[in-house]
Fold this sequence. Notes:
With 528 residues, this protein is an alpha+beta fold. It is built from 16 helices and 22 strands. 31% of the residues lie in helices and 27% in strands.
Amino acid sequence: MDRESKVITETPRTVPIRPEVAMYAAFARLNYKPWYAISEFVDNAVQSALSNMDALRAADQNFRLNVEIDIDENHIEIRDNAAGISVRDYARAFLPASPPPDTKGLSEFGLGMKAAASWFASQWSVRTTALGENVEREITFDIPTIVASNRDRLDAIERSAHASDHYTVLSLANLHVHPRGRTVGRIKDHLRSIYRVFLRDRLLELRVNGESLSYESPPILHAPHHATPDGSPVEWRKDFDLDLGDGHRVRGWAAILARASVTNAGFSIFRRRRLIQGSYGEGYRPETVFGKPNKFVYQRLIGELEVEGFAVSHTKDGIQWEDWEDDILTWIKDKLDSEPLPLLDQAANYRARAAIDRDAIGEATRDLRNAITQHLPPIVDRQLNTPPDESPLDAQLPPPPADATSLRTEQVRLNLEHSHRKWIVDMELLTHGTVDSWYELAEHETTGDTTRIQIRVNLGHPFMVRFVSPDGDELVPFTRLAAALAIAEITAREQGVRQAGTLRINLNQILRSALSGPVQHQEIKHGS
């Protein structure tokens, strides 16, 4: 894709854009998510490769589609080595709502690239050369200028190129949407989920900011039936195929996760091998099959469904089931819970703790032993030489740091009676990397018989960053533990323990300084 070496001549090619030009400005108001918008560009590349695979492999028998995406706060570029946009398709490719001749692939509405590019940026350009053509064409859409000047056509610049070249480069500038931080990570997670079939088949090599994306299916439960825990273990996975007639079909598989996960659980629905609904962390979990969110099935059931004969939304993030959805879900539910492998029954009643094996236990104990041996002694020495804390609890927690990210405050009314008092617990979760404490505690009475406790848990504490994933799947036990420690400290004070706060202070120090970082996993002999 060496642009400078191929520039020989420049001539204009005209692309009519009226009366559709007004649509480009309207695209900025679409309800896209960044990963679905970027998927439109990848779709075009994948479909171009599929439609021209014979010619591409005739030119290179080892051809594999490569799509590279570079994202920063002010610019996005997408490059591919697909077949390029040919001269016969060029004008149509840039007209909104102008579908391709073949709408049975991933490009069917004639909206995707134009809508997604205009949603992302007020200025975007496409540079492309098609396999077998000796011309590179570049066209630039400056949306505000086009709308203000009421232009009815754009001139593309044509340059000489080698007939063996084939690529498309899409550049987005003056962004409306600025992907940054965790959003870029989520884009990667969604893209590897959306294109998992093409990644598995090795048709597609997909890179984002230099990182090659791959998809790893979460492990499937291999265990006995919950009612016969001493029985032979089996893999809890089941295939199904429902032919509804008239070209409508749903087929796929469902399984139970080896480890419950709200992020991974749920169905992923594919059409034409491309995921449409149920991407990373957004699994399709209809209540008919999965039950309520607080049930085990909701956290443990996973599956992939390939649908045929159903339309999709124009943003390709939802299936249009017509009147079929309820009947399909009822059939799937009955199929999944049928003998001899009743998945829903197992998902609801199996307790994963029974599957913890000796290797996992050994790894956990070795990690703890190494962490304590390597980091704890100087902290313990310092704590033993520090006077114990005998100060009473503050009536209010201090204000959080100004640069802390306050996530939410949860108020839980506990039906506890202690010395004829009721308890209210206010739990505040915030993110701050430099606050020393994992959790803080304050106590004050709101009425004569009610005790209010304030607990603040710092999600930015190194201990939380290391052991809680960004999506917060493992957060519940940590917040429960903080509440238990806080209440235990207050009840200890009620029992006359004057130095109860020392435990909290020492715990916060140990978590930050000894148990948050990595350790060198070395074998330590017993008795040493």
